[in-house]
Structure formats: C-alpha cells, structure tokens
Write a sequence for this structure.
C-alpha cells in the first residue's frame, strides 16, 4: 500500500471545511469515496469535491474492498456505533473527537480495533501541529521549569438550538464538543491524569451544557482551569505556567486554521513563533503512516478513554453543582 | 486645603518605585514627609527623593499637624495596626492592599475612619487606570452581552525566602499579596459577590501559600478562575468572556508600569487600546479629591472587607484541599 484510500462517512461540514483540503495535501493518503444516507446528497458532495465514488449508505461504503480507511465526522453520539461497524468491516478508522461517550466505550473500541487488526485514532488534530509539538517538547524537556498550572479556553457562540451539538441523544454539550480540547491539552502537557475535578455548568436542556467551567487538581500539585462554551465569546487557547517560564497560545487548538502563533517567555526572554502548517494534513499523514507500516499511532483509543473519563467526571460534578468528583 | 500633604510610613520599595514618582505628577497632593523606625534611613530616603521632612518614628510623623494624610506601604500584616493609629491621629489613610487580614478587621477600620471623620482607602491602583475604567464601563454597559466567566492571573517569582511576603505573622502568602487582584477584578467586573469558592494551594511554610488556584461560583451562574503565585512565571492580566464579546488585558493590574494595553472583540470586531497613564497618580488624585471635598471614595473599607472575605474563604478551602467554602 503506497497511499491509504479513505472514504468519508457523511457529508458533515467539518469534512468539507477541514478534512478534504487537508487530505489533498497529504503525501500518503487519498480520498476515494464519500457516503451519505441520501444518495443524491452523496453524488452532489462527490461532484463538488472531485471525489471518485459516492455511496447512498454508510454500509455500502464499508463493503467496498478498495477502501482502506474511513474518516468519521458524524455527530458525537454516532462515533462509537460507526467506528465499531467500520472496524468490523476491517477498515482503519480516524474518528472525530470525542471517540465515544465513556471511557468504557473507548476501551471496547480499542479491543475491537485490536481484534480486527486495524488502526483506530481519535482526530485530535491540534496535537500534530508543529507548534503544539514544540510546546510539548518545551514543557516535557523542562524548559519552563516545573509546570504549575494551565488555563485553557475553547468557546464559540452556536445560535441554532437544533444543532446536533445540542441534542442529548447525540452526546451534545460544550464539554463533550470543545471542553475535550482543554482537558486533552492539560493531560498532554502535564503528562498526568487528574486526581479530581470540579465543574459548574449552565444547561440549555437536561444533560446538555451550553457552557461549563472545569477545575482539575493533580497529585503532583498541578492545577488546571478550563472554560468551554457554546454561548460565550472568548479567545481560544491556553496558558501554561511554570517556575522558569510560560507559554501562551493565541489560537492553540486550531493553529492551522488561522496563521498559528505562540508566545513563550523563559527566564524573562520573550519569543514568538508562527507556523501556518495544516495540522489536519499532518494528522492524516501520521495515521496513514501507521496504517501503511502497521505501527502504533501516537496515542490510541485507551488514551482517548482517559480523556473521556475526565469529561464524564466533569459532567457528573456539574450535575452536582461543583461537588468534587474523584477519578479512579 | 488646596493640596493634600502626605507623609509616607516606612521606606518600602513600593513607596520609592511607585508612590513617589506618582505623587510628583499629582495636581492636588504633595509629599511632605517620610518616617522610618531608623532615623538615618529616613534622612537618607528623604534626601534621595527630595522629601522636605524625615522622622525617626512613625508616631512622630503621625503627631505632625501639617501632615493631612499618610500612605502606608508596610508589610501586609502591619496595615491594620498603622491604619488605626493614623486614623486615631486624625490622618486620612491611603493603605496598600490588602487593608487588613479579615473582613471584620476591615469593618473595624471603616468604623474608626467614620468616627474620626477621615478618608480611608485601600490602594487598588489598577481600578483608576483609564483602561480599567473603560473595561468596567464596557462590561457594566452590556457591550460584551451577558458576562459568563473570567480567567485572571497575577504571578511572579520571589526567590528570597526571607521576604516579608513569606512571613506568616505579617499576613504573607501569594493569595493575600497578588491573589487579591484577581479576586478584586472579578468582583468589580461581575458586580457580584461569590456564592462559594474552592482553592488548592502549595505552601512553603504553614499558612503561607507560595501559589494558589482559586475557583469561584456566583449565584447568577458566572464563574471565575484565578491563579496567583510567588513561584510561577505567567503573563499577568485577565480575560472576560461574555455572550457578545470578550476583553483581554495583557498587563491589566499594572497597566501604567509598562505601556498599558487591552484587546476587545465584540460581534467579531477586534480593537485594541493603549494608554500609558500612571494609575497611582490617578488614585492619589481621586483620594486627595475626596479628602479636600469631603466626598466618599470610589470604594470604601467595607468593600475592601468583602474582598478579604473571599481571600479568607479561599485560604480556608485551600487548607481543606479544595473543599468548597460558602460565603456568608
């Protein structure tokens, strides 16, 4: 296999806006097909984006022998179901985050991928941007000294109450959809799982938060403060504070969408770094490389499950108006 | 009285670095004297800064009839004692923050000031900077829509373990010294008192935190996430998030020290504002104006007590490893 042949499950906006332009630039992957439950929609989408094949059902796409891998940009609540089906059809799976609604679900997916010998990865694209990789190196190499705290925020205003992100049966809610970034970057930069979390939320519907603030404490004494919201304006990114220096990202979760920029100050010396790399392309290339060479991806579904454990603990705490919830 | 004649109680660094350059620029105040417990130190300080009189004890200064007001930059734990003594000598008092270690202490000071007919104000200089005044107007006039959350941070590295800020008997600790800013700006911008706070701290000595993260919830649903530290590097300032827009300060608590700057985005339109005003001068002028015209200061010692109530609740929560502490 020289290039991984991808099919997209559904015509979601993120596929059009992010995945298709990204795969066009990938050296080891190509887009071979798209599937929609509506055959006409699939044909139109394929025609609009020069995709060779269009299928009128997801299952039909999964039955194609010439498809190696699928990209799943479905609503959050459908990620697990279609990841499992794709895995059982022997397809490698790159699925949008969050991979599944609980840690246990992620572990089931990991087991299914292993049993079927396929690569499964959650699409946390920001981790593949060269600036994120630089931040991770700086932090883990001790350039900022001992790391003490993070403040992170990912928030935008979603005015359509019918949006899938507000549907309880589709794993809606801001913590699930964008809070996952602040939690993921904290765990990644700290290289540690939280001991306990406290969260306070505002709900539009039962169980669907339109905003949440999360507070996490770690055994090492590190602290994280995270904001996520579908009803608030706020600059997106994170601030990492250490004993010797700090790093601030101005658009750390979508560095490639706008021109990515981070600022760091170490021992009083400030530097800024810019990089316009498309992080989706980097992610697709890494995933495809793992598929081609049968190597393990940078992070797996077990790791995605650990992120979900924190999200679920935050949701539980928010339901109890901020009561601390311990992680196992 | 055309100009308020100030005496400084002690030769603290902040008097030299901030207060003296500021009062030189004030239209309605002048610096008439300085007092130190060491007469030679007082003489040298007066000579270095062209201050007309030097006294070898604080009491001697308080006994001078030609002194209208005192500025108190003593270590935090001495603020109350010397504020009371100055008030009882009929002096108006501008005291560095925090005014006193508990809400009750602040209320006692307020009562003493009232009984003696003098003006008493805690020196929260950042509130007098034109950019802070602009932020308060934007927020309170609803320009950012409904306000949802704040993240604030004030942190620097203090390497000297003998510094007064590390002394338990002098009301040391980072939450007392710099956490007071994040708490103050949250209460000021939200125009609301927190319902409960949770905090986690790291201690260098019993009861003296060298860093703390604070999480506050409000009845209206607003949320605050605050970092303060004597052992961490971090950019200083705050981010206010609302339904229509946000404001970020890059150096919001010391806008006049460096060239002050804030950025706001409302309905997707980003603007930035710069202003190099010395906020200490503005504060001294406001205080002196209140003394001259016998008017109430913008905020009083009762208000300072409310800030202390939050600080004390955070300290209590941190002692209990983050347990929520309700405010009365």
């Amino acid at each position: 296999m020289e290039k991984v042949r991808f099919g997209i499950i559904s015509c979601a906006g993120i596929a059009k806006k992010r995945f298709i332009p990204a795969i066009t630039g990938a050296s080891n992957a190509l887009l071979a097909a798209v599937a929609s439950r509506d055959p006409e929609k699939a044909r139109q989408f394929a025609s609009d984006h020069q995709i060779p094949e269009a299928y009128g059902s997801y299952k039909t796409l999964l039955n194609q022998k010439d498809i190696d891998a699928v990209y799943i940009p479905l609503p959050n609540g459908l990620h697990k179901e279609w990841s499992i089906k794709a895995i059982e059809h022997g397809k490698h799976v790159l699925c949008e985050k969050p991979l599944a609604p609980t840690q246990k679900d992620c572990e089931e997916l990991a087991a299914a991928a292993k049993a079927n010998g396929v690569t499964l990865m959650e699409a946390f694209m920001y981790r593949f941007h060269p600036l994120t990789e630089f931040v991770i190196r700086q932090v883990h190499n001790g350039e900022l000294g001992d790391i003490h705290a993070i403040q992170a925020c990912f928030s935008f205003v979603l005015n359509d109450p019918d949006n899938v992100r507000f549907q309880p049966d589709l794993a809606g809610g801001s913590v699930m959809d964008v809070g996952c970034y602040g939690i993921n970057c904290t765990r990644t930069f700290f290289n540690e799982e939280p001991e306990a979390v406290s969260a306070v939320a505002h709900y539009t519907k039962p169980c669907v938060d339109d905003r949440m603030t999360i507070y996490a404490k770690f055994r090492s004494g590190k602290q994280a403060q995270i904001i996520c919201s579908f009803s608030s304006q706020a600059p997106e990114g994170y601030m990492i504070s250490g004993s010797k220096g700090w790093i601030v990202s101005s658009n750390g979760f979508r560095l490639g969408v706008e021109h990515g920029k981070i600022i760091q100050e170490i021992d009083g010396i400030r530097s800024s770094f810019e990089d316009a790399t498309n992080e989706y392309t980097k992610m697709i290339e890494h995933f495809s490389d793992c598929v081609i060479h049968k190597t393990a991806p940078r992070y797996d579904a077990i790791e995605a499950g650990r992120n979900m454990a924190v999200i679920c603990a935050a949701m539980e705490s928010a339901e109890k108006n901020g009561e601390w919830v311990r992680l196992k």
